[in-house]
Amino acid sequence: MPKQTSEFGRNWYAVHTYSGYEDAVARNLRQRIESMGMEDKIFNVLVPTEKKIKIKGGKRRTVEEKIYPGYVLVEMIVTDDSWYVIRNTPRVTGFVGSGTTPTPLSAEEIDILMGRMGEAEPKHKVDLTPGDAVKITDGPFKDFEGKVGEIDEERGKVKVMVSIFGRETPVELDFLQVRRV
């Protein structure tokens, strides 16, 4: 790595890790920063997650999902020492950037990311796609079958085209009121 000094300033960097090991890498980094006395160069280690609502087996669950699987974000001043500490942490494969020079994330990217992480209301996540055949499990159209027309993940709603009196009619339902056939 080319010689760098603290003149480059404090920035956020994306560190590539083995997928599935993001939390372990973050824990390891925090321990290494403390044990090696790097608190003045490496300030924050973050695994970006957001809450999503998943529906499985007709039950709604709120889950924490990683926004960038395989990546950990680190706020640091890049120096030879801080680069070495991060780069030689177990299960870290490298920094995001060209060659041996890490590329900092822009302030705009960090603001967007922090906004996504700070959202109190979880997003709905459902494994339906337009055109899927579904059966309505609740409400006035219980036991009717139809095809998914539109999906509104923000509101947790799905429009199902149901044949009523020989005519296709759109019916708006909650994700919990339908299941895939």
TrEMBL record:
GO terms for cellular component: cytosol. Keywords: Transcription, Transcription antitermination, Transcription regulation, Transcription termination. The keyword Transcription applies. Residues 127-154 form the KOW domain. It comes from the Bacteria. Residues 9-117 form the NusG-like N-terminal domain. GO terms for biological process: DNA-templated transcription elongation; DNA-templated transcription termination; regulation of DNA-templated transcription elongation; transcription antitermination. Participates in transcription elongation, termination and antitermination. This is Transcription termination/antitermination protein NusG. It comes from Candidatus Ryanbacteria bacterium RIFCSPHIGHO2_01_FULL_48_27.
